[in-house]
Predict the 3D structure of the following.
Amino acid sequence: MHGPRRLVAGEDYPATYREFVAMFPDDEACLRYVEELRWPDGFSCPACGSKGEPWQATRGRLVCRVCRRQTRVTAGTIFDKTRTPLTTWFETAWHLTTAKSGLSAVTLSRTLGASYQVAWAMLHRYRVAMVRSEREPLQGDVEVDETLVGGVDHGGKPGRGARRCVVVIAVEIKQPTGFGRVRMRHVPDASAASLTPFVCDVVVPGSVVLTDGWVGYSRLPEHGYLRRATLLPASGDPGTVSMPGVHRVASLLKRWILGTHHGAVAPAHLQSYLEEFTFRFNRRSSGSRGLVFRRLLEQTVVTAPVTEADVTGGYDW
Ligand SMILES: [Zn+2]
């Protein structure tokens, strides 16, 4: 075993759109890239475990020299059995990771000349891959608070039949100023039964959790957290925000949903959008968008195929 190798721009990932086009002219080039991401230390046969250069059979199929079993390069990844060309998938990943605020399925379908359904399904599958990269729990001082998302139509008025969703947000607070990483979850309500498991899943025990006085956070000390509750005086300055980090992130999230996605986020799919926002927010200071593109593709090869039901009915997180 050796440590992760240093990645080189223009070689391991494209730094510009020009390089992207040059690196991925056809599906063969995309398949070779997926193969390299799946087996960074060289092919290893999933059937017999043998290592060593495989034979190349038909497009995208590798044949083990020992047991002669065929392995599809995309088997077990989110590209498994797709009818959409890999070049289209790659172009979607490029736009998704390099556009500052991402893009909607409508914009993507126009950009690619693909149908809305194809564009939407690709974005949705990439969002599932994004969640996998957010495994490291938050630590240090972490603000946690809930916010309400949705339920407002384009005119800013409460929409007919629109439902407001409770989203709980955790933000790392840096000293002396600034924010670190975030995590978010769409929860059924603001009860302790909804809030406690979220904190336990996303924050390292022993961390200081900053909350307001809400009883829904009262069980945190039982789970090894230091809860610091801030109680705002009832007659306080109306401009005072009890949880400035969460407040800031929540307003960016709402602006993104209204701007990029025109507020059209169904409750069944809200968590997927939260994952995309989180992926982008947590990489906001990455110097190279091309490297973020590679990181997303690295996740796709370790993300199990997403079913059609997951795409239409909402992924079961
Ligand atoms: Zn084999």
Summary: The first strand starts at residue 55 and ends at 56. The radius of gyration is 22 Å.
